[in-house]
Amino acid sequence: MTTERDEDYLKIIASIVEEKGYAKVKDVANELELGPSTVTGMFKKLDKEGYINYEKYGGVTLTEKGMEIARKTREKYSMLKDFLMHLGIDEKTAEEDACKIEHILNPKTAQALKKFIEFTDKEDESRIWIEHFRYFVQTGEYISCSPENRDKCPVHGKGN
Ligand SMILES: [Zn+2]
């Protein structure tokens, strides 16, 4: 069982490793704005638990197990960010919230949210509906736009 902190570390290590092949204490410390001794302690713990390969003077890489956790956490993160932005939340807030929610999200909930995005991305009424909803979030104005009066819709009308 991984903790929230484990997941954040593995996620950051994964992106650093992708960039340069390995991650050093310094890289992770900069990224998380923590002291090197805190990061070293965490590297030892993650190594003992089998998530990373840690050599004292080299950089770390992820084990299969560590990679799997990083992948799943990142997947949940980007899905959540999409979902929140889909609702009309600004990108910065969506990123901040996604980073917190990713750790506690039940897979069943994650699945339903993913389906929600898929559903409202279809090229039909459900897409129109979510676009009205976003407008409603931003302006508080409820729009009723049927195909006959769509021209006058502030979101879908001509000139928008
Ligand atoms: Zn409309």
TrEMBL record:
Domain HTH dtxR-type, first and last residues per copy: 1-63
SMART domains, per database record: HTH_DTXR
Alphabetically ordered keywords of this record: DNA-binding, Transcription, Transcription regulation
Domain of life: Archaea
Protein name in the entry: HTH dtxR-type domain-containing protein
Organism: Methanosarcina acetivorans (strain ATCC 35395 / DSM 2834 / JCM 12185 / C2A)
Keyword Acyltransferase: no
GO molecular function: DNA binding; DNA-binding transcription factor activity; protein dimerization activity; transition metal ion binding
